[in-house]
Amino acid sequence: MSALSSPHSRPGFIRSFPLLAFVLIAYNVATLGFDFDFTAPIVAPLFQIKLVSGAIWSTGWNEVLLISGLALLFIEILKSSRTTTQTTFEHLLSMLVFIIFIVEFLIVPAAGTNTFFILGVMALIDVMAGYAVSVAVARKDLNISG
Q1: Segment (H or E) for 50
Q2: Is it the case that residue 58 has pLDDT exceeding 50?
Q3: Which of 36-50, 111-125, 132-146 is least confident?
Q4: What gap in Å lies between CA 18 and CA 123, rounded to an integer?
Q5: Nearest to 71 by CA among 146, 127, 20, 118
Q6: Is 97 in contact with 90 (CB distance < 8 Å)?
Q7: Residue 20 clears pLDDT 70, i.e. is over it
Q8: How high is the mean pLDDT of the chain?
Q9: b or e along 21-52 (b: 16 or more beta carbons within 10 Å of the residue's beta carbon)?
Q10: Which 3 state secondary structure label does DSSP give 4?
Q11: pLDDT tens for residues 98-124?
């Protein structure tokens, strides 16, 4: 059995990396690197679908970023349900991502949008869920061993 597949091997930084940092990075690259405006209405949607009702549903980058954030939040909550020796480090990194969201929202003009705010709330939920799951697991461990 290799060291990578050993059950006693420590999860590395990659496994502990908060996934919501990817949407934070994507937002910053879009606004700072490509001068994308998340406050503008959808002028050229990514795609449109005609629904059975006859309504046309269109979506833009805002929605794609928010849906990506929700999917990554789901994975983060699943990740927080496992207990490892690096759980505290994972919570620390998630908290750091949340703090970056707060600071950018308050200071960076391009981050003062509803999309960025909702992504920041997702980061807050990630932090709260991580700590809540850790406390629940710790209580369970205390009850079993006590």
Answers
A1: strand 47-50
A2: yes
A3: 132-146
A4: 9
A5: 20
A6: no
A7: yes
A8: 84
A9: bebbebbbebbeeeeeebeeeeeeeeeeeeee
A10: coil
A11: 999 999 999 999 999 999 999 999 999
The answer to whether 98 touches 127, Cβ cutoff 8 Å, is yes
Q: Is 100 left (phi over 0), alpha (psi -120 to 50) or beta?
A: alpha
Question: Are 38 and 32 in contact, with CB atoms under 8 Å apart?
Answer: no
Q: Tell me the C-alpha distance between 113 and 42, whole Å.
A: 15
Sign of CA dihedral 86, 91, 97, 103: negative
Tokens 């209580």, residue located: 139
CA 138 to each of CA 9, 64, 84, 87, 142: distance values in angstroms, whole numbers, following the listed order: 22, 36, 12, 12, 6
- Taking alpha carbons only, the member of 116, 120, 70 closest to residue 94 is 120
Which of 121, 119, 92 minimizes the C-alpha distance to 13? 92
